[in-house]
């Protein structure tokens, strides 16, 4: 590799190849600034997601962080490498170094990349299993979530523990039957229908997502959990909240003109407050 | 009697045959290019309206009926912006415009294999564009279901929302026309690349641009047929009472719908089986151009040419196996999600190889910062950024908090809306002298680059953080969920950056159109490049080589070969001719 | 011009990597001819047709997979459709047309132009009969009250037969075009080859669709 070493008469060089330094320097500076700004904003958590309220959510955050470290390292290396390359090898009158490549390097960085992805994939699949494949606990509370244009409706099975039959032909929101509960079904009589979701803390909950019209979605940031609600299906989603509080439920699947205002609340309350809630609701239905 | 068909030997006369209804691939390429320029202008205007509305939702806009933008108007902008950009800019400019113009020339052919089919492809594409634009002005307006058009929102007519009536139908018809046009176009590209290469031009001597167009055409061929099928089924669901995508028991707006048994997920599978290869169709030609230009202006061969070819093929092939990563939270089986995740991560490997090889091409080079080179370097930077954010989305465990947030919007805009566009800019600045016989202004070009590079990062880097904090995409404004208010400062910053960057594009348009008429006359080979398009005049004659068709004796990137008398060896020159070629090939640098 | 000089050199020392040259030396009337130098080699049209068929295949593959998925839903409203019996006759007709087409091509190759035209015409007529037979099948279904939207099985039936029928109509137009007009750019043999490929593919595709629909009934 023969690189002509110029004398350090930088001024004379620049005059001869006027213009080649400025774009190189500017590009290198911009890339460096990009890297510094991005790393800072990410590391300093300037725009954080809200604190997680389940153990699985913590795992999701952890996987996000690991991915951030790996991709962050690649980002810094690649962008700064680019900056360095364009600066160092700008045209200063040297000859370019002729090479067709290096099989060794290709093998090296292919294996390295594949390894990083493999590790990330394995770690991530464990978290995914925690989200999707955890076995149902015996005392799981079931709540049905129905998405419509543009509200959420929640249904508890009531004291009998059974969800009553729904009939789409009976849906009549103005008349107070948004879900189409069949009055002839005895199991439907004690079903509790609400517009917000209340669950007890530290208690496994299984949501049964459905939709009446178009594809909706159920997303709670603090749970690090979202799932599309697809008409014609019932999709289970489970979590165990370990902190009381109030979170917003939003729809992330484009569902029509009111998509942006389809919003409800998840209230995580103590066990006794939850029992009170059920009692009050049962009386009011 | 010749066993081959003669084409293009007599240049047609008359303005109509020469410029409008021409079968010359160069004219058709330019027609596609100007169509894409018109489409990108419209697409940018739509996006500026969107960004403006997100920050000032109650502003009075006099050109809107009613004065204030409604949520459905916002969603119509979202839908049309996405559709127009993906189809009529990112599928049209890199492949149909530049590919049509330069594939035949780079392989030493007089035209595409099927010139009349080529012309038909263009006119179908134009018809598709007009049909799409017409959706704005039909009763009900443009559709609001996004460029992804998920049923049942898109499958029932206007009972689900404004614009879902005739507007959605126009959209579907336009897409079906576009599918036909693309299929016909890919037949041309693939046949030409296989059968019409110059003597000596083996596959492993083809420029990476030709490889990219070739692989992209294969993707097009295999993907658009599936979109066509899905589109037909959606059309029937809407207008013939079928239920491919519509389940039973739908109650929309209080009305029970008489449909049964269909699945919205079926549409999603069909759409994304097309949709994922589509985004590789958008980026692969840009990768080819980037490799090509980086070699040219580093005065070095592409680092690892063979690996680059294999990577193109691997990305193309794997691109067909990963569509489910758009559907991790769709209701698809979680086991399928794992499979798709593994496959998606593996696409990262050939993509990383390409990035390393681009760096390797620059390394040890003699880098000259002409505008095409600046945009090629910018391409690499944005591809790295956008590709890396994809790794988050490729894992369902992380996607579950990022799906349908602005994080996804940031990711695909950086790879498609910036990197692929930078590929188009690279191609334009690089080949403008060849296409139009004139040089673009260098100073304006560089100025355009700096503004666009900085501006694009300013628009799209903050967008990641909006997504991480939970900002949901396709929201008309932030008055729904209360936590969204905290994201408004970021939105304001991005909107200002968007307007500034859009304004910077005026520099490009001015440069482009001014240089058409007043640019310095371009020599045949202003960049001292090696590939076949540079041995012919600028612009090329009707049959590309004035009857003297080249043979090829070497690879496409023989720059700075030790022992050569100049730092590049054109593909059509034997070693002994080196000295002769030195005198005959104009060296305008 | 560099290009000029290089061509001369090619003649002198036969350089250019003949083994890998993109256009192998021709084998007479059919096929190769120089590429790039004067125009499109005849074999390109064959390549083009193969590629077109791959694209068409993907379209039908999408429909077939949609059918498979739809049929496989649990608690489905799918009612197996009884395939109209005339479809058996139509299938035989189409199969016969492939034989007549192959025969006509053999006559062309052996120089018997009149027999070529005769069997070519028979193929076209058989094709028309096939399409007519498909339309009769539709009529029979309509009379029995089975429409496009009646049941998903009928929806797919109509779509498969319509899509295939439209493609076959395209093939008939191709047959007529060769019969009535000598194409400027295509040698007649190439046109015959290309249309044959298309026709046989449509035949094979129909066989597959027919068996597929039968299996679902």
Number of domains of chain B: 3
Q: How does the helix and strand content of chain C classify structurally?
A: mainly alpha
CATH homolog superfamily of chain C: Cytochrome c oxidase, subunit III, four-helix bundle
Round the mean pLDDT of chain B to the nearest integer and report it: 94
Estimate what percentage of residues of chain C fall within beta strands: under 5%
Uncertain spans of chain C: 1-38
* Extended strand count of chain B: 3
Q: Helix proportion of residues of chain B, in percent? A: 55-70%
Order of helices and strands of chain B: EHHHHHHHEEHHHHHHHHH
N/C terminus separation of chain C:
69 Å
CATH topology of the largest domain in chain B: Cytochrome C Oxidase, Chain A
The largest sheet of chain C is: none
Spatial order of strands in the largest sheet of chain B: 2-3
**Number of helix segments of chain C?**
6
Protein model, in words:
- The complex is a heterotrimer of chains A (285), B (589) and C (217).
- Chain A is built from five helices and ten strands.
- Chain A is α+β, with helices and mostly antiparallel strands and 285 residues long.
- Chain A folds into two domains: 10-132, no CATH class; 141-284, Cupredoxins -  blue copper proteins (Immunoglobulin-like, Sandwich), CATH 2.60.40.
- The relative contact order of chain A is 0.13.
- Chain B folds into three domains: 24-247, Up-down Bundle (Cytochrome C Oxidase, Chain A); 294-504, Up-down Bundle (Cytochrome C Oxidase, Chain A), CATH 1.20.210; 523-589, no CATH class.
- A two-stranded antiparallel sheet of chain B has the order 2-3.
- The longest helix of chain B has 35 residues, at 264-298.
- Chain B starts with a strand and ends in a 5-residue tail after the last helix.
- In chain C, 71% of the residues lie in helices and 1% in strands.
- Chain C contains six helices and one strand, in the order αβααααα.
- Residues 1-38 of chain C have low confidence and may be disordered.
- Chain C is an all-alpha fold and 217 residues long.
- Chain C has one domain: Up-down Bundle (Four Helix Bundle (Hemerythrin (Met), subunit A)), CATH 1.20.120.80.
- In chain C, helix 2 packs antiparallel against helix 5 (152-180) and helix 4 (113-143) runs antiparallel to helix 5 (152-180).
- Classes of the chains: A alpha+beta (285), B mainly alpha (589), C mainly alpha (217).
- At the A-B interface, helix 2, helix 3, helix 4 and strand 7 of A face helix 3, strand 2, helix 8, helix 9 and helix 10 of B.
């Amino acid at each position: 590799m023969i690189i002509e070493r110029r004398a350090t008469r930088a001024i004379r060089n620049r005059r001869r190849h006027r213009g080649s330094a400025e774009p190189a320097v500017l590009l290198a500076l911009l890339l460096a600034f990009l890297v510094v700004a991005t790393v800072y904003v990410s590391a300093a958590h300037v725009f954080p997601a809200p604190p997680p309220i389940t153990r699985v959510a913590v795992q999701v955050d952890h996987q996000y962080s690991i991915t951030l470290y790996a991709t962050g390292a690649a980002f810094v290396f690649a962008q700064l490498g680019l900056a360095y390359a364009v600066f160092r090898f700008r045209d200063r009158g040297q000859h370019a170094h002729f090479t067709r490549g290096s099989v060794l390097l290709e093998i090296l960085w292919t294996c390295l990349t594949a390894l990083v992805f493999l590790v990330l994939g394995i770690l991530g699949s464990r978290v995914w299993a925690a989200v999707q494949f955890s076995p149902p606990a015996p005392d799981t509370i079931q709540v049905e979530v129905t998405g419509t244009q543009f509200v959420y409706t929640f249904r508890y099975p009531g004291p009998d523990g059974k969800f009553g039959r729904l009939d789409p032909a009976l849906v009549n929101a103005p008349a107070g039957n948004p879900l189409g509960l069949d009055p002839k079904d005895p199991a439907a009589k004690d079903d509790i229908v609400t517009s917000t979701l209340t669950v007890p803390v530290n208690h496994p909950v299984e949501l049964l997502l459905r939709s009446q019209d178009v594809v909706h979605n159920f997303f709670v940031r603090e749970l690090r959990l979202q799932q599309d609600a697809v008409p014609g299906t019932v999709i289970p989603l489970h979590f165990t909240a370990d902190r009381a509080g109030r979170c917003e439920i939003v729809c992330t699947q484009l569902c029509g003109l009111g998509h942006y205002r389809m919003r409800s609340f998840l209230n995580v309350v103590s066990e006794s407050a939850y029992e009170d809630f059920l009692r009050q609701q049962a009386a009011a239905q | 009697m010749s066993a081959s068909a003669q084409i293009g030997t007599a240049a047609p006369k008359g303005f109509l045959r020469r410029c409008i209804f021409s079968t010359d691939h160069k004219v058709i390429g330019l027609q596609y290019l100007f169509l894409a320029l018109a489409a990108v202008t419209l697409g940018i205007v739509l996006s500026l309206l969107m960004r403006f509305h997100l920050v000032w939702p109650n502003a009075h806009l006099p050109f809107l009926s009613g004065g204030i933008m409604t949520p459905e108007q916002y969603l119509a902008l979202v839908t049309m912006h996405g559709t127009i950009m993906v189809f009529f800019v990112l599928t049209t400019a890199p492949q149909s415009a530049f590919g049509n113009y330069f594939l035949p020339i780079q392989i030493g052919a007089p035209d595409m294999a099927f010139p009349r089919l080529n012309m038909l492809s263009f006119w179908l594409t134009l018809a598709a564009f007009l049909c799409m634009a017409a959706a704005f002005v039909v009763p009900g307006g443009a559709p609001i279901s996004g460029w992804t058009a998920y049923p049942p929102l898109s499958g029932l007519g206007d009972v689900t929302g404004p614009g879902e009536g005739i507007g959605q139908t126009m959209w579907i018809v336009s897409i079906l026309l576009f599918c036909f046009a693309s299929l016909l176009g890919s037949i041309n590209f693939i046949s030409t690349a296989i059968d019409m290469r110059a003597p000596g031009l083996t596959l492993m001597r083809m420029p990476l641009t030709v490889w990219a167009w070739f692989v992209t055409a294969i993707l097009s061929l295999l993907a658009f047929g599936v979109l066509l099928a899905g589109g037909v089924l959606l059309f029937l669901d809407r207008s013939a009472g079928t239920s491919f995508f519509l389940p039973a028991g739908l109650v929309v707006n209080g009305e029970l719908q008489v449909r049964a048994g269909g699945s919205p997920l079926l549409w999603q599978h069909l759409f994304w089986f097309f949709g994922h290869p589509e985004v590789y169709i958008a980026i692969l030609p840009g990768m080819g151009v980037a490799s090509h230009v980086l070699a040219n202006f580093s005065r070095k061969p592409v680092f690892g040419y063979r690996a680059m070819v294999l990577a193109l093929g691997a990305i193309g092939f794997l691109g067909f196996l990963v569509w489910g990563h758009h559907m991790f939270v769709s209701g698809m089986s979680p086991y399928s999600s794992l499979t798709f995740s593994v496959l998606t991560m593996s696409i990262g490997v050939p993509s990383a190889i390409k990035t390393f090889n681009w760096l390797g091409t620059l390394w040890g080079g003699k880098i000259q910062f002409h505008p095409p080179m600046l945009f090629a370097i910018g391409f690499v930077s944005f591809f790295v950024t956008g590709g890396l954010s994809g790794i988050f989305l490729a894992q369902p465990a992380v996607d579950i908090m990022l799906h349908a947030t602005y994080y996804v919007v940031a990711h695909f805009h950086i790879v498609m809306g910036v990197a692929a566009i930078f590929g188009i800019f690279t191609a334009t600045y690089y080949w403008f002298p060849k296409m139009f016989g004139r040089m673009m202004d260098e100073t304006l070009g560089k100025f355009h680059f700096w503004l666009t590079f900085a501006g694009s990062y300013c628009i799209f880097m903050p967008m990641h953080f909006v997504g991480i904090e939970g900002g949901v995409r396709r929201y008309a404004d932030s008055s729904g969920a209360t936590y969204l208010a905290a994201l408004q400062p970021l939105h304001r910053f991005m909107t200002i950056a968007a307007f500034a960057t859009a304004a910077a594009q005026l520099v490009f348009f001015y440069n482009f159109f001014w240089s058409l008429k007043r640019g310095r006359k371009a020599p045949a080979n202003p960049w001292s490049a090696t590939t076949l398009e540079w041995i012919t005049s600028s612009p090329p004659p009707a049959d590309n080589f004035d009857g003297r068709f080249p043979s090829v004796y070497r690879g496409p990137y023989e720059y700075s070969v030790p022992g050569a008398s100049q730092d590049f060896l054109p593909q059509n020159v034997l070693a002994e001719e080196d000295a002769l070629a030195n005198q005959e090939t104009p060296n305008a640098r | 011009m560099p290009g000029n000089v290089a061509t001369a050199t090619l003649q002198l020392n036969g350089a250019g990597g003949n083994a890998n040259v993109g256009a192998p030396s021709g084998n007479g009337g059919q096929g190769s001819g120089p590429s790039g130098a004067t125009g499109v080699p005849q074999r390109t049209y064959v390549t083009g047709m193969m590629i077109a068929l791959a694209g068409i295949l993907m379209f039908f593959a999408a429909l077939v997979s949609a059918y498979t998925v739809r049929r496989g839903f649990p608690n489905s409203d799918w009612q197996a459709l009884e395939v109209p019996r005339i479809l058996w006759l139509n299938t035989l007709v189409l199969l016969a047309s492939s034989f007549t087409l192959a025969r006509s091509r053999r006559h062309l190759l052996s120089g018997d132009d009149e027999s070529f035209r005769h069997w070519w015409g028979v193929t076209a007529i058989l094709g028309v009969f096939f399409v007519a037979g498909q339309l009769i099948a539709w009529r029979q279904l309509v009379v029995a009250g089975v429409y496009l939207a009646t049941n998903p099985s009928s929806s797919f039936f109509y779509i498969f037969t319509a899509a295939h029928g439209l493609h076959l109509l395209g093939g008939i137009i191709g047959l007529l075009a060769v019969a009535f007009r000598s194409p400027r750019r295509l040698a007649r043999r190439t046109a015959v080859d290309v249309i044959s490929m298309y026709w046989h593919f449509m035949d094979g595709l129909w066989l597959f669709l027919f068996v597929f629909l039968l299996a679902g009934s």
